[in-house]
Please model this.
Amino acid sequence: MDGYIMALDQGTTSSRCILFDHSGKICSIAQKEFPQYFPQPGWVEHDPMEIWSSQFAVAMEAMAQIGVTATGIAGIGITNQRETTILWDRKTGKPIYNAIVWQCRRTADMIDALSDEQKKVIRGKTGLVPDAYFSATKIAWILDHVKGARQQAGNGEICFGNVDSWLIWNLTKGGVHITDYTNASRTMLFNIHEMKWDDELLEMFNIPREILPEARPSSMIYGYTDPAILGGRIPIAAAAGDQQSALFGQCCFEPGEVKNTYGTGGFLLMNTGHEAIESAHGLLTTVAATPEGEETSYALEGSVFVAGSSIQWLRDEMRMVKTTAQSEEYADEVYDTAGVYVVPSFTGLGAPYWNPYARGTIVGLTRGCKKEHFIRATLESICYQSMDVITAMEEDAGVPLTGLKVDGGASANNFLMKFQANLMNTQVFRPKCIETTALGAAYLAGMAVGYWKDRDEIKENWQLGRTFTPELDDKTRNELMKGWHRAVRCAISWADDEE
Ligand code: ADP
Model:
């Protein structure tokens, strides 16, 4: 098959572009960071024009690196930071406010003001635990704080989009206002059972329907790039939120298959097939990337707020390591943590605890605790937190995990992967290509334009890099987990005792 598939991977801190060939090999890669804005404590914004210009620049750079032109690109797939909210003027294409980033907590009080009944409706229709992360309250905030925005919105003069919509709008020079189902499922306005924008939710958050993009499957041709952008008309053939894209890129096509991404945060997703399983343990139910013409697939999702970022913390604030990779060498120098547990709940605890007030806690210190123990305990905390989510998922799904596919920057750490396998007591599979987020978007786009025939052909590309096999006895494993839960209780009681 000639040509390449272009994946645009628009993340929270950088924009990346990767060109893949038919075997799923990375042929060209370009990346550019862009500024983060923190106008007040707890607030996080991006400049939508900086999102677009950095994404556009890396697309050009990736093409230039290997001398390919628009005719050599068979299709474009987009994957993006989810929930981040942009409103722009339909006529001029200018944003009316900065992008409010998923991490931004400014609308927490709007969530607190919801009644229990309203929260139940949201949970039932969207599969989400009501939270300020999701787009709904962010949209309402912009409409309420930008002068004249509500009236303009009512007149159909304003467009809302997550980052996927914003990129598609710009790639088509305003020709297409569309989003995919996976992104829509994170707005808290989308009914994931009926697959449509929900009037009751729109009313609850006071959001006019006129601003919404059309919601479509994750793999289909949405439109073509304007020739003035990349020098030709390239089909824009896929969009999916980053985690759903990684699930697809890991070829977790069958119900029960699970992937865990170890990035800044950690994201565990389990394919649950055509069934939207409602979690009894605070996990989210979400739409999985599904090509056009197929029945919708769903996933259960649990996240770990602080995963790889705890190693950045060791590097930048604690100054215990020079590089994040060095954490592996230190951890391997000791046999255990000397009884120390680090609970890196810097911003509270996610699933299954959902305690926003818990704070980072270190327990079990003795005179013999060395830096190596501390580093090891921090790495282990990533696995313990993942383990809590895995246990919740197993209980919701009613089946034990039989293996875990991993990716993300920190999955390169062998100590981390070994310890994860030990805690889970199942094998951990690390593919050769850990760029699965971009790969998922590429596969989805490639399927829409006939570059890849079907999932079976794609599966042949999934290559195992390394398998990690558990080597821990049950007794030790249970003791370790017991110790972790004791440590978590300390983190929670620290918050509970506040006067
Ligand atoms: P994101 O996509 O969230 O920006 P990446 O997948 O690029 O994240 O992974 C980066 C994260 O992984 C950082 O938080 C970094 O600390 C962590 N990381 C990268 N390499 C290692 C390593 N060898 N050991 C431990 N952590 C690592």
About this structure: DSSP finds 17 helices and 23 strands in the chain. The CA atoms of residues 430 and 466 lie 5 Å apart. Residues 11, 13, 263-264, 308-309, 311-312, 324-325, 327-328, 408-410, 412-413 surround adenosine-5'-diphosphate (CB under 6 Å).
